[in-house]
């Protein structure tokens, strides 16, 4: 059941984010209930007057692996700079590369992402790129050394689910690195569907953070991801257009007439 | 010496990065620092000499997805 990325083994296939929670207590309770072993963080320039909100300490106490992202980067150069800063601030060479110049749909820029990943791999980073569900791009990223690919299900925070499902299926079929469905997952059923289809993991943030009970939703996602993976490993039946009886046909009913 | 810390103009007598940062960063605080957009690892702060008009940027982790 476990998943290995760059030599690191995770027993949970649910990765989480720390954004949008109403408060730190809810964030910690939700991540804990979800069983997630890796959670994302962002970087920003410190507000010298307001001081720090100190998000690190409770997460370190929780013992989850921290995955910095390059959110806010608009091109490869900014993403590389953000990754270098994150490596220093969080003492990790893991980075989730996300480059989205457009604020309305937050679509990841494929060209800048490929450039950034190639350079960051050269600099020794474990790179996890957030991308559109583009099978060709996934192969190109794999070739330059991405340790996994993170195709979107739907726009970030949109809760639309697996809008990109046909393309996720192609990516899953072709990929030699783990496929982590990131963005758009709005309900546990979406996460279960991704795992059932053979995705190696999902990353969930908004759906957990904005739930009226984030802790319970974290648990719901944990169960959904486990169920989805178990279904995938069990092997789901073939979809077909006509019925196939689950009970054997007998002459029994005729006898009664 | 005129410096800029996160874009704010600062007059400073400190000539090393480590001395300047004492005003801003706690000993246990996990931050990343760049001088003129070059990341300076913490182990190098005391060797990093500042000059007039240097731009120092201090970054910290925040919540994000």
UniProtKB/TrEMBL annotation, chain A:
<keyword id="KW-0784">Thiamine biosynthesis</keyword>
<comment type="similarity">
    <text>Belongs to the ThiG family.</text>
</comment>
<feature type="active site" description="Schiff-base intermediate with DXP">
    <location>
        <position position="96"/>
    </location>
</feature>
<keyword id="KW-0963">Cytoplasm</keyword>
<keyword id="KW-0704">Schiff base</keyword>
<dbReference type="InterPro" id="IPR033983">
    <property type="entry name" value="Thiazole_synthase_ThiG"/>
</dbReference>
<comment type="function">
    <text>Catalyzes the rearrangement of 1-deoxy-D-xylulose 5-phosphate (DXP) to produce the thiazole phosphate moiety of thiamine. Sulfur is provided by the thiocarboxylate moiety of the carrier protein ThiS. In vitro, sulfur can be provided by H(2)S.</text>
</comment>
<dbReference type="Pfam" id="PF05690">
    <property type="entry name" value="ThiG"/>
</dbReference>
<protein>
    <recommendedName>
        <fullName>Thiazole synthase</fullName>
        <ecNumber>2.8.1.10</ecNumber>
    </recommendedName>
</protein>
<feature type="binding site">
    <location>
        <begin position="205"/>
        <end position="206"/>
    </location>
    <ligand>
        <name>1-deoxy-D-xylulose 5-phosphate</name>
    </ligand>
</feature>
<feature type="binding site">
    <location>
        <begin position="183"/>
        <end position="184"/>
    </location>
    <ligand>
        <name>1-deoxy-D-xylulose 5-phosphate</name>
    </ligand>
</feature>
<feature type="domain" description="Thiazole synthase ThiG">
    <location>
        <begin position="4"/>
        <end position="248"/>
    </location>
</feature>
<comment type="pathway">
    <text>Cofactor biosynthesis; thiamine diphosphate biosynthesis.</text>
</comment>
<keyword id="KW-0808">Transferase</keyword>
<dbReference type="InterPro" id="IPR008867">
    <property type="entry name" value="ThiG"/>
</dbReference>
<comment type="subunit">
    <text>Homotetramer. Forms heterodimers with either ThiH or ThiS.</text>
</comment>
<dbReference type="InterPro" id="IPR013785">
    <property type="entry name" value="Aldolase_TIM"/>
</dbReference>
<feature type="binding site">
    <location>
        <position position="157"/>
    </location>
    <ligand>
        <name>1-deoxy-D-xylulose 5-phosphate</name>
    </ligand>
</feature>
From TrEMBL, chain B:
<protein>
    <submittedName>
        <fullName>Sulfur carrier protein ThiS</fullName>
    </submittedName>
</protein>
<dbReference type="InterPro" id="IPR012675">
    <property type="entry name" value="Beta-grasp_dom_sf"/>
</dbReference>
<dbReference type="InterPro" id="IPR003749">
    <property type="entry name" value="ThiS/MoaD-like"/>
</dbReference>
<dbReference type="Pfam" id="PF02597">
    <property type="entry name" value="ThiS"/>
</dbReference>
<dbReference type="InterPro" id="IPR010035">
    <property type="entry name" value="Thi_S"/>
</dbReference>
<dbReference type="InterPro" id="IPR016155">
    <property type="entry name" value="Mopterin_synth/thiamin_S_b"/>
</dbReference>
């Amino acid at each position: 059941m476990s998943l290995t990325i760059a030599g690191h083994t995770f027993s949970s296939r649910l990765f989480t984010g720390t954004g949008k929670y109403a408060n730190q207590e809810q964030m910690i309770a939700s991540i804990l209930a979800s069983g997630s072993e890796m959670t994302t963080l962002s970087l920003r320039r410190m507000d010298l007057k307001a001081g720090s909100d100190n998000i690190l300490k409770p997460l370190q106490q929780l013992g989850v692996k921290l995955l910095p992202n390059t959110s806010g980067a608009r091109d490869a150069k900014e993403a590389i700079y953000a990754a270098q800063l994150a490596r220093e601030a969080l003492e990790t060479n893991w980075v989730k590369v996300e480059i989205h110049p457009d604020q309305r749909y937050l679509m990841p820029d494929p060209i800048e992402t490929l450039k950034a990943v190639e350079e960051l791999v050269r600099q020794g980073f474990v790179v996890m790129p957030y991308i559109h569900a583009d099978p060709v791009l996934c192969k190109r990223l794999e070739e330059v050394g991405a340790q996994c690919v993170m195709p979107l299900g739907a726009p970030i925070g949109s809760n639309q689910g697996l809008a990109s499902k046909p393309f996720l299926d192609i990516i899953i079929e072709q990929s030699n690195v783990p496929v982590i469905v990131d963005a758009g997952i709005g309900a546990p059923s979406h996460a279960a569907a991704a795992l059932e289809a053979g995705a190696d993991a999902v990353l969930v943030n908004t759906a957990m953070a904005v739930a009226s009970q984030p802790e319970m939703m974290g648990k719901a996602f944990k169960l959904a991801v486990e169920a989805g993976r178990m279904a995938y490993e069990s092997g789901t039946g073939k979809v077909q257009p006509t019925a196939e009886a689950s009970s054997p046909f007998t002459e029994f009913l005729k006898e009664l007439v | 010496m005129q410096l800029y810390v996160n874009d704010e103009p600062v007059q400073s007598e400190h000539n090393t990065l480590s001395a300047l940062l004492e005003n801003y960063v706690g000993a246990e605080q996990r931050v990343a620092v760049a001088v003129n957009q070059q990341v300076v690892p913490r182990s190098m702060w005391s060797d990093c000499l500042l000059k007039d008009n240097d731009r120092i940027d201090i970054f910290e982790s925040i919540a994000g997805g």
